[in-house]
Amino acid sequence: MRKALFGFLSVILMSVFAYAEHHEGTSPLRLDHPDRYVVKKGDTLWGISETFLRTPWMWPEIWQVNPQIENPHLIFPGDVISLVYLDGKPRLVLQRGDGSRTVKLSPTTRVEPLDTVIPAIPLDAVDAFLNRSRVVTRQLLSDASYVISGHEGRIVSGNGDKLYARDHLDGGIKLYSSYGVYRPSTRYVDPDTGEELGVEALEIGLGKIIEKEDDISTMRLSASNEEVRLQDRLLPTEEAKVIPTFFPSTPEQEVSGKIIAVLGGVSQVGQFDVVAINRGARENIEIGNVMAIYHSSGTVKDRLRKDVVRLPSERAGILMVFRVFEKMSYGLVLKAQRPLAVMDELRNP
């Protein structure tokens, strides 16, 4: 968490002079901005920045770091954010609130109550998609080792149970190694090209290989989100699952993409919903990239020319990318002026 917030508010990337040059002299501030804001429990940095700025992802550009404050990049409930002008340019400054926060000191370590830190975006909205799913190739899942039986012939297994898995075409399971148990879910296809972008693999459980004989391995499950079944796949656990740096940025290149799915079992897309988009690492998409969402206005019949005309799409929301795969990404909708939908377009903000 400390790294995520430090990344979000760490430095001023460019001066307000540069901002004005690129935005034809327009002010980054909202016309109805307050002069000060008292941080509340449940706030996010995105929401606070939206209170002051016309474009919330420009927060780092006017954040004034106060070297007299310990960890000025970490914001807590009760802190006060004020708008001031330095050399005629707007800056946001932080003043610690009156509420006390326990800080433990020792000769070598310093511990702070980071669970009270205001996050960059609503982490509860993306947690499951950071920790419980990944997008892989269909071939990787097909070649992976798989569950052949639970202990004593059971067909389902859960936390604390032993199960048996068999090597397949992935090079085999390694003794004493940790694995995730995955189940294939949604298959993603690019709506424009028909290319398969990947298969969503849902993490069912976690475990460690405790015995191995020939191509049969014994796994002890240390965690399970639901019952592990026969033919579920074993994949090596990913690197330590830490919250990435949600540092808002505009893509370095022109973006032309689409929302290809809405995750979490909902049909329409609204604020704080998670969506899948058909652009990923190969298109230089990065964590923190902000994109504008454009909703189709549909088609109308031209009664004079007797043909059908597609109306221009209208800007309808903003999303931030929070997880990137090779050919696609997951994004969180941070603002929606109207209901959004699959196939809505993505462009630079």
Question: Can you count the beta strands?
Answer: 22
Radius of gyration, CA atoms, in whole angstroms:
24 Å
Largest sheet: 6 strands, antiparallel, barrel
The tally of helices reads 6
Report the β-strand fraction as a percent range: 35-45%
- The dominant shape is flat
Overall mean confidence score, pLDDT: 83
Helix content: 10-25%
Note the run of SSEs as H and E.
Answer: HHEHHEEEEHEHEEEEEEEEEEEEEEEE
Number of domains: 3
Uncertain segments? 1-25, 100-113
Question: Can you put this structure into words, describing what you see?
Answer:
The chain is mainly beta and 349 residues long. It folds into three domains: 2-101 and 111-120, no CATH class; 131-236, Beta Barrel (Elongation Factor Tu (Ef-tu), domain 3); 257-347, Thrombin, subunit H, CATH 2.40.10. Helices cover 12% and strands 37% of the residues. It has a six-stranded antiparallel barrel. Strands 15-16-21-20-17-22 form a six-stranded antiparallel beta barrel. Strands 1-2-3 form a three-stranded antiparallel sheet, with no helix packed on it. The chain is flat and about 75 Å long. The model is unreliable at 1-25 and 100-113 (pLDDT under 50).
In brief, what are we looking at here?
This protein is mainly beta.
Secondary-structure topology with pairs:
Elements: H1 2-9, H2 16-22, E1 36-38, H3 45-52, H4 59-62, E2 80-86, E3 89-95, E4 104-105, E5 110-111, H5 123-131, E6 133-136, H6 138-143, E7 145-150, E8 156-157, E9 162-166, E10 178-189, E11 196-213, E12 216-224, E13 228-229, E14 233-236, E15 257-262, E16 274-277, E17 290-295, E18 299-302, E19 307-310, E20 314-324, E21 329-336, E22 345-347
Antiparallel strand pairs: 1-2, 2-3, 4-5, 6-11, 7-9, 7-14, 8-13, 9-12, 10-11, 10-14, 11-12, 15-16, 15-22, 16-21, 17-20, 17-22, 18-19, 20-21
